[in-house]
Amino acid sequence: IMGGHDAGTQQQFTGVAKYFNSFTITGRRNCVLATYATIATIFLFFKLKPKKQPAVTEK
Amino acid sequence: MMLNLFDQFMSPTLLGIPLMLLALSLPWVLYPKPLKRWLNNRTLTIQSWFINNFIKQIFLPMNTEGHKWAMLLTSLLIFLITLNLLGLLPYTFTPTTQLSLNMAFATPIWLTTVILGMRKQPTHSLGHLLPEGTPTLLIPILVVIETISLFIRPLALGVRLTANLTAGHLLIQLIASGAYFLFPLMPAVALLTSTLLFLLTLLEVAVAMIQAYVFVLLLSLYLQENI
User: Which segments cross the bilayer (chain B) (predicted)?
Assistant: First the structure.
């Protein structure tokens, strides 16, 4: 094995890292899409969350 | 007596008629069109030499798909350089000090490069929003940062040109007013101020050309990333 910096292209990724890593172009693309999807989900969750109505009591 | 330093940046009007169209069409009027003769005159030769050198400089690193943009970017460069240089003449209006004009140039062209990139090579365009080798924990933060830096590009382009030209014109007016008012009071200081004004004017001529070139160069770089 030669010394020096490994560019990452020769690494064999397994499992989730095969699809989500910051070395291959498809891995980077998937990470970006996953980040956008997470942000959109959090935004939609708070947007669509039903607001709590205070209980109406008769005096 | 209070000088109004910002009158020079107001859009010119004459009897209520806006003269912006006149100011914008002036570069078109100044340049000669190619002759039908076999040999060109000196003006046309210099013009062709300049355009050819610019095209070689900008488009050699680009692939052939991007060469279709040569006419757009070259005409944009010549337009911006001419507007900037004409604005350095006394009592003229510089359209490129208006943010609206610069944003109108920057935003559509930048958006075109982004849309082209997303259409032709979506994986590469999206993949470039995350730098290679980013540690796992930093991935979401860097994606957000890179997205923000992508969307800030047209704003940076427009504001860079506006700010450079506005600042230069303001400085010229300030120092010229200073030299003028100091002359009867302290002639020696006024002479120094005039020397400073001369040097500043030379700098502004350089800035006028460089800023137009930087504007077009950055647009060509954004195109190179996406084409």
Answer: 69-89, 138-158, 170-190, 196-223
Q: What's the domain count of chain B?
A: 1
- CB of A37 within 8 Å of a chain B CB? The answer is no
B127 to chain A: nearest residue by CA? A29
Show which of residues 102-141 on chain B sit within 8 Å of chain A, judged by CB atoms: 122-124, 126-136, 139-140
Residue A24 lies in a domain: yes
Chain A residue nearest residue B123, CA to CA:
A29
Residue B11 token pair: 């859009």
Task: Note whether residue B199 is domain-resident.
Answer: yes
Q: Please check whether residue B187 touches A, CB under 8 A.
A: no
- B37 vs B1: CA distance, rounded Å: 58
Domain limits for position A24: 15-48
| Domain annotation covers residue B13 | no
Identify whether B10 is part of a domain. Answer: no
User: Cα separation of B34 and A37, whole Å?
Assistant: 54
Residues A29 and B126: beta-carbon distance below 8 Å: yes
Contacts of B137 by beta carbon, 8 Å cutoff, 6+ apart = none
For B161, the domain range is 44-226
The tens place of each residue's pLDDT in chain B, 227 residues long, gives 456 788 888 888 888 888 888 899 988 888 988 888 888 899 999 999 999 999 999 999 999 999 999 999 999 999 999 999 999 999 899 999 999 999 999 999 999 999 999 999 999 999 999 999 999 999 999 999 999 999 999 999 999 999 999 999 999 999 999 999 999 999 999 999 999 999 999 999 999 999 999 999 999 999 999 98
Partner B contacted by A11 (CB < 8 A): no
Q: Which residues pair with B18 in a beta bridge?
A: B13
